[in-house]
Amino acid sequence: MAFINSIGLANAPFKHAQSDILQFILEMYKVPELEIDKVKRLYERSEISTRYSAIDDFSIEKQQWTFFEQDAMTSVEKRMKKFFEIAPNLCVKAILNCVTNQQLSEITHIITVSCTGISAPGL
Question: What's the rounded mean pLDDT across residues 58-81?
Fold first, then answer.
């Protein structure tokens, strides 16, 4: 019989308020005035209060951004490069958090959640 013996978590280093992410999206994608209320409702109804990210730009002024382009869309390649810089170490951190004070003979699954990167066959 299968069961979960232990769970280990790890989050990206930057924690952002959902309201900061909303403001970032509205500015980044130059959401048309007629669509702003719809986007705001989506963010409010998600029931998400905070999000974690490998990037600090979501909570700072546009002039201070260090990752996102200020006048163009940031490439998927640049996003994926950042994902592969951060994600493997987060997996290791989650594993270490999982096995602390546990006597596990093996780890069979790692489940990752990301809105940015994917890796096949997996991290």
Answer: 90
pTM of the model: 0.78
Strand partners, 16: 51
DSSP codes joined into one string, 34-101: HHHHHHHHHHHHTT--EEEES-SGGGS-GGG-SSS-SSSPPPHHHHHHHHHHHHHHHHHHHHHHHHTT
Q: What is the dihedral of CA 104, 110, 113, 119, to 10 degrees?
A: 160
pLDDT, tens digit, 9 for 90 and up, residues 12-35: 999 999 999 999 999 888 899 999
The one-letter amino acid code at 22 reads L
Rounded Cα gap, residues 17 and 64, in angstroms: 18
Q: Beta-carbon neighbour count of residue 21 at 10 Å?
A: 18
